[in-house]
Specification:
The structure is a single chain. The protein is mainly beta and 1170 residues long. The protein folds into seven domains: 106 residues, no CATH class; 366 residues, Pectate Lyase C-like; 106 residues, no CATH class; 137 residues, Sandwich (Immunoglobulin-like), CATH 2.60.40; 129 residues, Immunoglobulin-like (Sandwich), CATH 2.60.40.60; 137 residues, Immunoglobulin-like (Sandwich); 98 residues, Cholin Binding (left handed beta-beta-3-solenoid). It is built from ten helices and 88 strands. It has a 23-stranded mixed beta sheet that branches. A seven-stranded parallel beta sheet has the order 6-10-14-19-24-28-32, with no helix packed on it. The two termini are 127 Å apart.
Length: 1170
């Protein structure tokens, strides 16, 4: 234990500061002590005392030869001890070590050299952790489910840095995992996880979390500060858990130093391995330097542990392969192996293969191999250096004691080097301790005490090379044990310890001890139970009185049998309860039922301690039932439709049978129930529950077969109801599980079917699928006020047919789809309605459409369809008959003439008689106005009889043709009368009326015609001396008529005459030319119109399409305006057309496919669409 803390002990390693500064050290191997650190500080205050301070250092340098330096007798060579290789016996001289330290601290001229002391001087006020390269975060959440992940050396540095920061509280309750092998291969000395926060701190900040190495390793760990306490991968642990981790490194420190952890408090280290080498003074070890209230389990050390005391002997030295010094702790199943030439285990003070010192600490199942101690040690023990209190049991020492004959050695022991105090006793505290050779007992087992008191019952001795045989030590003699193997001895040691987390021992196939798992077998009532490993000649049977262990993965045979009470009255026999033979792990996480009844009863041993158990029960002698007969009545009631009946059941309620097991004291009263037919076959007519309740099964095959047969018969004879009745017999049997005792009850099941169904209507049909009716509307008389009559197809009868013919209810109802079209009565008589609204709508629609054509013939017609439905009262079955009704109009009316009009009400004719030549024989020529065509317009245009007759009231004045052509007479009597009075100057005027009369109705219209006559006398008397020559002439010749133009034309010849020949009308200009293939605007009777002439020069009439594609209409009637171009609205052949009235280059062109300027629509033919 540490006596006091030296000044400067907690100061930062100078070499760590040199590395942090980026400087290069003068020496690559230098380990300044705490005194060197103190001296470095003094250099800063007084440079003139350099020589004096150097002299102060020499005594301490001399004392460094005491650090783990064997005696001169054990030196193998004069070579210097190297950090990376330390042989079993350390060499070197005090002078060499002094020179080494002297070289490490120096000043060259005025230039500062990067030595450890100067580094401290330069960075005395710097942060301990400054300049260190580390990660900026750790992956993970720190929970057990999502632990922090350590993926790199920088992650480890960040962890160490954060733990030193008290804000994380050492990561208490947090979890970490190592995810890979990690090398700490930089040149800086490692700052442990759980170290000081700042230089000058007196206590480190411990790591308090949970670190799982997951089988990975951390290597190239290097700590090179001999003043450093709390040295190792972890400096200080408190309440922490470290497991499944391998650490390989070089640790050269002061006290509380180890490869894994410098000091541990209330912590657990489990399944960890240390490799490399650790140097120091005070408490050092391979796994932990010093332990308090902690647990170290299943750990292995192969690292060299080299220790000593400090120069002032102010602190005791403890060196142990696993732990330097342990206080109130627990160490179990740990191994230290220093047989490697590189490894060594020595120190001044107390040296032990497992621990240098223990206080109130249990050390169990330990194993040590290799050399322990040297001539420098005070006390050496193969397992424990000094034992103050506690227990050491089940230990094996297979190594050697390094200084058993040294004169400087105080005491040494095979197992314990020195026992302090008198409270430690053989058996209770020291037991089951063995070496691998009897010869090693030349050295006392316990150093200074207890050797003479050793007895066989203390189980202290030696095992042989085959590891099966062993002997026990007593009174300087060995007694070979021939009735048991060594593994049994070790397992007894484990059992005597009684700790659940101590490993057990089992035999291998060759009999040597291997890891085993405890098989506990409690005592069982009424039976025996034991187990033994299969096919192992060294295995022993395990039972409740002889516990033992078996290696995991091996086959385990189980033996069990009942213990019957045959002497009792009556005798009681026992049997194994089903599934009661099983094993369960001590942590209750695994269990397995062991199957019996095969060739052998066995299981495979798991990797956990288990308890094997079985339960036996008393067998049964008999069983009785409370009733021996049961009767059930089952009635199926069928109602509703016979083809889809409603099924109801009337069934006797379930009946309970009670079984009584004999005797009442039987351990197993479990019974099983079954149902059988009378012939022994299984039945499903009823079921029996686990508690004896019998219930009829209405779905049983016997019942369903009866129902199916009855229904099939009814399908053949559907008019008959079902009358099935039947009876079935069976038994209910109760059987005891134990002994297979039985009792039965007779069961009767009476079944019948009560048929209350009726035959439903399945369908209905009609004798006709379609009916046709016609409504004819006949119009007679005048079109404007006709007489209207209707004729309708007579009513028709529909007949229904119900299926099946034997249906109980054949009532039906009739309905129609549209009552406005047809009607049906209750007997299926269908009639059509002549006053139907749809017919009236058709007629009205036609009247509306013909509102502008009141004389159009009525053609109103249409078709409508509906249907008649017959519906059965039973089931609502339906059949439908389509009904088609057609309507048409027969229009026999006549459109009468209402009036007639003429296109001209007045006409004027001029007759000029020109007389030339000799008065005695004048030449006479008449100039007469051309005949005028009167055109009669009969209204309405639809009038069927459009014949008209022409007449004149004074035929002496003029004539009128049948077509209405009016011609003035030049030979009328009234003219002759005028000439008779004055031949050369006759003149006068006469009026006549032209009348047109319709054949239908005698409608008339008149035109007043005025005829003027005058005589132009251009004759000469015979004495005038000349004449016009030639003889007389007529008024015209050639058979053509002509009419003069009163207007002008736009073509050649400003004026001309209309001429009509046998082909038609044409126009001759005054220059005797005429228009052809063109439009011309010409005048006639004072009216100017546009006319078109064909390629021959004849005027065109009727429909005409011009070369530009426009369509025109030229007046075809000879009413004095024949051939004129139509414009505006015009009715042609009963249809209205619109012609462009605007002079825009297309005047007179027909409008098509659009709207007229006044908003009316015309189609592609130009016809107005009403």
């Amino acid at each position: 234990m540490k006596k006091n803390l030296k000044k400067g002990r907690a100061v930062l390693s100078a070499w760590s500061l040199i590395t942090a500064m980026g400087l290069t050290p003068v020496l690559s191997v230098a380990y300044p002590s705490a005194s060197a650190v103190v001296y470095a500080k003094e250099l800063q205050t007084d440079d003139t005392e350099e020589t004096e301070e150097s002299e102060k250092q020499e005594p301490y340098a001399e004392s460094m030869t005491e650090l783990a330096t064997p005696s001169e007798a054990e030196k193998g060579s004069d070579e210097k001890t190297q950090l990376d290789q330390v042989p079993d016996e350390v060499s070197g001289t005090e002078e060499e070590e002094l020179n080494l330290l002297g070289d490490a601290i120096q000043t060259i001229g005025s230039e500062t050299v990067a030595t450890p002391s100067n580094a401290i001087m330069l960075l005395a006020n710097s942060s301990l952790w400054g300049g260190m390269e580390m990660s900026d975060h750790l992956d993970g959440e720190g929970t057990e489910e999502e632990p922090y992940e350590i993926n790199s050396a920088n992650d480890l540095r960040l962890l160490a840095y954060n733990v030193a920061n008290e804000e994380v509280d050492g990561y208490a309750g947090c979890y970490f995992v190592l995810t890979r092998d990690i090398s700490l291969s930089d040149t800086a000395s490692w700052l442990p996880i759980g170290y000081f926060a700042e230089t000058g701190d007196s206590e480190p900040m411990p790591f308090k979390g949970n670190f799982d190495g997951q089988g990975y390793r951390i290597y190239n760990l290097k700590i090179s500060d001999t003043t450093q306490d709390y040295a190792g991968l972890f400096g200080s642990l408190h309440g922490a858990t470290i497991k499944n981790l391998t650490v390989d490194g070089q640790v050269n420190a002061n006290s509380k130093a180890a490869i894994l952890a410098g000091e541990i408090n209330d912590s657990i280290i489990e399944k960890c391995t240390s490799l490399g080498q650790v140097r120091g003074v005070g408490a050092i070890g391979g796994i932990a330097g010093e332990a308090y209230d902690s647990v170290i389990l299943e750990c292995t050390n192969t690292a060299g542990v080299l220790g000593g005391t400090d120069a002032g002997a102010e602190e005791e030295a403890f060196a142990g392969g696993v732990c330097g010094s342990a206080h109130t702790s627990f160490i179990s199943d740990c191994t230290s192996d220093t047989t490697d030439s590189y490894s060594a285990l020595y120190s001044e003070g107390y040296v032990g293969g497992i621990a240098g010192n223990i206080y109130e600490t249990e050390v169990y199942n330990s194993y040590v191999e290799g050399k322990v101690g040297s001539t420098s040690a005070d006390y050496i023990g193969g397992l424990i250096g000094r034992m103050q209190s506690g227990q050491v049991k089940n230990g094996r020492f297979a190594g050697t004691i390094g200084a058993s004959t040294s004169s400087t050695l105080k005491t040494a022991g095979l197992f314990v080097g020195y026992i302090e105090g008198g409270t430690i006793e053989l058996g209770d505290d020291l037991a089951y301790l063995f070496t691998d050779s009897e010869d090693k007992y030349s050295l006392n087992p316990f150093g200074n005490k207890l050797t003479p008191q050793i007895r066989l019952e203390h189980h202290i001795g030696a095992y042989y090379s085959n590891q099966r045989d062993f002997s026990l030590y007593q009174m300087d003699e060995f007694t070979k044990q021939t009735n048991r193997y060594f593994y049994e001895e070790l397992e007894d040691g484990v059992l005597s310890i009684g700790e659940e987390n101590v490993h057990h021992y089992a035999p291998s196939k060759t009999g040597d001890p291997v890891r085993g798992y405890l098989v506990s077998i409690p005592a069982i009532d009424h039976g025996t139970l034991s187990a033994m490993e299969s096919q192992n000649n060294y295995a022993k049977e395990i039972d409740w009185a002889n516990p033992g262990a078996i290696a995991a993965g091996t086959k385990v045979l189980v033996y069990t049998s009942p213990v019957n009470e045959t002497a009792s009255e009556p005798p009681v026999y026992y049997e194994l309860e089903p599934d009661s033979l099983f094993w369960i792990s001590d942590d209750l996480e695994e269990q397995e039922v062991i199957q019996t009844g095969g060739v052998e009863t066995a299981f495979t041993m798991p990797d956990s301690n288990i308890t094997l158990s079985a339960t036996y029960r008393a067998m049964t002698n008999g069983v009785v039932l409370d009733r021996t007969e049961l009767t059930f009545e089952v009635e199926q009631i069928r109602s509703g439709s016979r083809w889809n009946p409603q099924i109801g059941w009337k069934v006797t309620d379930p009946q309970k049978l009670t079984a009584t097991v004999i005797p009442d004291s039987a351990a197993n009263k479990t019974v099983y129930w079954s149902a059988k037919d009378t012939d022994g076959a299984s039945t499903d007519v009823f079921t029996v529950s686990d508690d004896g309740e019998v219930t009829v099964n209405t779905s049983a095959k016997w019942i369903t077969d009866l129902i199916r047969a009855a229904v099939a018969n009814q399908e053949l004879y559907p008019a008959k109801p079902i009358t099935t009745e039947a009876t079935d017999y069976a038994t209910v049997t109760v059987t005891t599980e134990a002994g297979q005792k039985r009792a039965s009850a007779f069961v009767t099941v009476n079944f019948k079917i009560t048929d209350q169904t009726v035959v439903p209507v399945s369908g209905v049909e009609l004798d006709q699928a379609e009916l046709a009716f016609e409504v004819v509307r006949t119009l007679e008389g005048g079109r404007l006020n006709p007489t209207e009559t209707y004729s309708v197809t007579p009513a028709k009868r529909l007949y229904e047919t119900i299926s099946p013919e034997y249906a109980d209810n054949k009532e039906v109802t009739w309905s129609v789809g549209d009552s406005d079209i047809i009607r049906v009565d209750g007997e299926g008589m269908v009639s059509v309605r002549e006053d139907a609204r749809w017919i009236a709508d058709l007629i009205q629609a036609e009247k509306t459409a013909n509102s502008n054509s009141p004389y159009a013939k009525s053609e109103a017609a249409g078709n409508r369809s509906s249907y008649v439905t017959v519906t059965t009262t039973d089931g609502g079955k339906q059949a439908v008959c389509a009904v088609n009704v057609s309507f048409r109009t027969v229009d026999n009316t006549v459109a009468h003439v209402e009036s007639v009009s003429l296109d001209q009400q007045e006409l004027t004719f001029n007759i000029e008689k020109v007389m030339t030549g000799r008065r005695s024989n004048p030449t006479v020529e008449y100039k007469v106005t051309s005949p005028v065509q009167l055109n009669a317009a009969v209204y309405p245009a639809e009038a069927e009889n459009r014949i008209v007759a022409w007449s004149v009231d004074d035929g002496d004045v003029l004539t009128v043709s049948e077509s209405g052509m009016v011609t003035a007479r030049t030979d009328g009597q009234w003219i002759k009368d005028l000439e008779a009075a004055n031949l050369y100057g006759a003149a006068g005027e006469k009026t006549a009326l032209v009348t047109v009369t319709t054949a239908d109705g005698g409608k008339q219209a008149q035109c007043k015609v005025t005829v003027s006559f005058k005589t132009t006398n251009n004759t000469t008397s015979s004495s005038s001396g000349g004449s016009s020559g030639g003889g007389g002439g007529g008024s015209s010749s050639g058979g053509s008529s002509s009419r003069s133009s009163a207007g002008s034309s736009s073509g050649p010849g400003a004026s001309g005459n209309w001429i009509m020949d046998e082909v038609g009308w044409w126009y001759q200009y005054s220059d005797r030319t005429y228009p052809k293939s063109c439009w011309q605007q010409l005048s006639y009777n004072g009216t100017t119109e546009w006319y078109h002439f064909d390629e021959r020069g004849y005027m065109q009439t009727g429909w005409f399409t011009d070369v530009d594609g426009h369509v025109y209409y030229l007046h075809p009637i000879g009413d004095g305006t024949r051939g004129r171009m139509y414009t505006g609205w015009n009715q042609i052949e009963g249809k209205w057309y619109y012609f462009n009235p605007v002079s825009d280059g297309t005047r007179g062109a027909l409008f098509v496919n659009g709207q007229t300027p006044d908003g009316y629509t015309v189609d592609a033919n130009g016809i107005w669409i009403p």
